[in-house]
Target: Adenosylmethionine-8-amino-7-oxononanoate aminotransferase
Amino acid sequence: MTSQEELLALDARHVWHPYGPMPGTVPPLLVREAEGVRLRLADGRELVDGMSSWWAAVHGYRHPVLDAALAEQAGRMSHVMFGGLTHEPAIALARTLVDLTPDGLEHVFLCDSGSVSIEVAVKMCMQYWQSTGQPAKRRLLTWRGGYHGDTFQPMSVCDPGGGMHSLWKGTLTEQVFVPEPPAGFDEPLDQSYVDMLAREIAAHAHELAAVIVEPVVQGAGGMRFHNPGYVRALREITAENGVLLILDEIATGFGRSGSLFAAGHAGITPDVLCVGKALTGGYLSMAAALCTPEVADGISRGELPVLAHGPTFMGNPLASAVANASIGLLLDQDWLAEVRRIESGLRSGLAPAADLPGVREVRVLGAIGVVQLDHPVDMATATRVVTEHGVWVRPFRDLIYTMPPYVSTDADVAAISRAIVAAAGEA
Ligand code: PLP
Model:
């Protein structure tokens, strides 16, 4: 067997990691296997995973039900093209997604990743206006501080203000940005902010295909929570102004914020909804863009009456089968009680961080716990401290945060919290 040192040397030389330099400078941790909420490293250490592998592995790793679903599907077929062919796992998944998501979303386009589902959602909206005789409506309006993925169209609606995507300024399609909503899930609605949204959307309505936002939780753009009333207001304002509404629930979908979909906090149905990440319980890459019959009918009235998109691995049966099993697992348990249990563990566990010098804010919503510092996190120190505490989380910017698997026990949540508080004190 290749030694740990040799593997890491090869990794540094050949493997390009997300948001990393090439060749690699900071050696990643070498994971040998993962089970439940634990990552087992090649050097013998075991870490409690506070990240759910970028918010996807809600049932933890090697779940027997998901493993069985995958093996069973592999025994039938791993993949067939989706053009001209279909299969039960994808049909069942589409039906389930329609049943679970807000009323009125009827059609499901299965995609390979979250970013691609955003591309598809935007295409749906642009094609809708093109097909219904208003081709000038091709821009998007979004609030600042958002994150929608790393391919070009999603990057164009990520916050342009100095983040990693500012590198692409000038090459991205120009969108309309408005300030992000006032922070705080429980804070009262700021009517002057809603009025500003109404003014901006009305002023740009003639050129807007859609408004696109992350409802209630702005994730990778800053881990901020806001009053669901802002999303409700967006629904009313977009409808009044003939603009479509895309909700990006790739991070919030499947219970993370304490509602099965964050749109549920607001009680609204968007024109297009994107889901991904936890869709397959973190097993395989799959996402989906769901839309209303109105959007689909509009597109079908066009000169080209089809959606101009068709990825090779669309509707992959393995991913569909494991998604069906993962959603089944979620719904077969009292998932809300589990998320609430984690929420209360994070509230008490992270509370001591609020008294530390250098900590700006501690905030918790559903199974999301965030400690925001008043300075950028020193990544090397934070990683050392949390791993010494037997925990894996990956901070960014000024944030040390966790989105643990829903199967984390109270002891796991306490361990993650202790590690984050310790890291906040040193990093
Ligand atoms: N949208 C949101 C809200 C996300 O959090 C992410 C990923 O973090 C994406 C889109 C992109 O998804 P993917 O990484 O699967 O392309």
User: Anything to note?
Assistant: The chain has two domains: 4-62+334-426, 77-332. Residues 4-62+334-426 form a domain with the Aspartate Aminotransferase, domain 1 fold (CATH 3.90.1150.10).
